[in-house]
Amino acid sequence: MRKLISLLLAIICLVPACLAETASPSDYTLERVVVLSRHNIRSPMSGSGSLLGDITPHTWFEWTSKPSELSLRGAVLETMMGQYFRLWLENEGFIPENWKPEDGEVRFYANAKQRTQATARYFSAGLLPVAQPPIEMHAEYDSMDAVFNPVIHFVTDAYKKDVEAQIAEMGGSDGLKGICAGVKDAIALLMDVADVEKSEVYLAGTYGDLKSDEMEIILEEGKEPAMNGAIRRATSVADALTLQYYEEADKQKAAFGHELTEDDWRKIHSIVDTYSEVLFGTPLASAQIANPLLKELRAEFTAEGRRFSYLCGHDSNLCSVLAALGVEAYLLPEAVEQRTPIGGKVMFERLLDKEGTAWYRVSMVYQSVSQLRNMTQLSLNNPPVVYPLHFTGVSMNADGLIAEEDLLALFDDAIDDYDELLEYYTEETPEADAA
Questions:
Q1: How far apart are CA 152 and CA 213, in angstroms?
Q2: Which of 233, 256, 285 is the last residue of a domain?
Q3: Does one domain contain both 165 and 268?
Q4: Which residue in 36, 132, 226, 401 is deepest, having the highest Cβ count within 10 Å?
Q5: Is there a domain that residue 65 lies in?
Q6: What is the predicted pLDDT for the residue at 264?
Q7: Does 425 lie in the same domain as 308?
Q8: In whole angstroms, what separates CA 180 from the centre of its chain?
């Protein structure tokens, strides 16, 4: 079990990770696959009559779905990803052609939002074109399932103070102001691209000053961590602009007439990455937020008869789960969203060596910017990007694989962290609560 003090360490600055060697298919046999997916391309979270609709004088892309719902492009791309997984698994000898799994061999489970349920449905159609596996939904439609809901479960003054201290460390000696300073140039670029300062509401000060260094962190029991300030407002616009870049074929039109490089797009989206890391990526926050989903994933590794599991949630789910597990810092190549890309999948492959010993390979699987924009058909010769993930303190063999007992211990320790925090900050235990 990891010591509680490990959760109090400052978050590591983001640096690119190196690609690891992958094992030869002849050395291992694929035995089980567990996938935690983010939904694919959606429309922006809000439409006309909101900050997004008012903050620019330009007209946004004509989205093919209602606000927050999976777009037509997202549906096609996710089907393509499912088709690729089918080709890959057939090539591995893991499944036969046109596989019709027996009861319990596969599981599809998604949050109760349209974009997650639909993403799981389209992926399953690509993976299993002649089967119709049910998509589990354990909450009222369009509400948040407790397993995927990235909320804080308890708050005390001491806990809030320590979380805020961890967040402040991300900004260096300048604390929260340092975080704001870190995205200052990105926000300036965003404002220039969207001509924000030409919009009537911005000139009137309706939504505040996006160039300010104000930031307030809000932690309330039973709610998602929240933020007030310029980064939050800029995140809404940067998110929508990134989605528009995926959807709009004309790159210049996607940028409201501006000529942007791939680095410019990454810079704009770094605002969203910062927002997510601040709210969901610190050790103390992620240990709480990810706990229900960590338990759900952990159960899939040992579910009797299970061969393929697909759980679909949100970027906050991928961010918090990876942070809680202590993922080493990484920046994804060929991506605008370099942490939790749209449609991205954290994949756990259980592999058996020739002696029957179980190992795991953990990767982020996602479609590149080019594949997203061009809707490129995936194949064994044109696969999605598969980027290896590593975890602090977890050793790997020469083929870049983690021993099964080490991976399960990593999950168990991350799950136990929540109980330790609860007892440390409230002097309560889950057992006492249950009684």
A1: 25
A2: 285
A3: yes
A4: 401
A5: no
A6: 98
A7: yes
A8: 22
Average pLDDT score, the chain: 92
Work out the angle at residue 152's Cα, subtended by the Cα atoms of residues 149 and 154, and round it to the nearest 5 degrees: 135
**Domain final residue pick, 239, 260, 285:** 285
* The pTM of the whole model exceeds 0.85: yes
CA 337, CA 220: separation in Å to the nearest integer? 28
Q: Do 229 and 113 have their domain in common?
A: no
Q: Are residues 231 and 327 in the same domain?
A: no
Burial environment of residue 190 by CB neighbours within 10 A (0 to 12, 13 to 18, 19 or more): buried
Indicate if 11 and 79 belong to the same structural domain.
yes
Whether the per-residue pLDDT at 197 is higher than 70: the answer is yes
pLDDT digits (tens, 9 = 90+) for 208-233: 788 888 899 999 999 999 999 999 99
Average pLDDT, integer, range 182-209? 90
Which two tokens mark 18? 């190196």
Q: State the pLDDT at residue 175.
A: 94
Condensed to tens digits (0 to 9), the pLDDT of residues 52-107 reads: 888 899 999 999 999 999 999 999 999 999 999 999 999 999 999 999 999 999 99
CATH at 46: 3.40.50.1240
Count: domains in the chain: 2
User: Are both 308 and 319 inside the same structural domain?
Assistant: yes
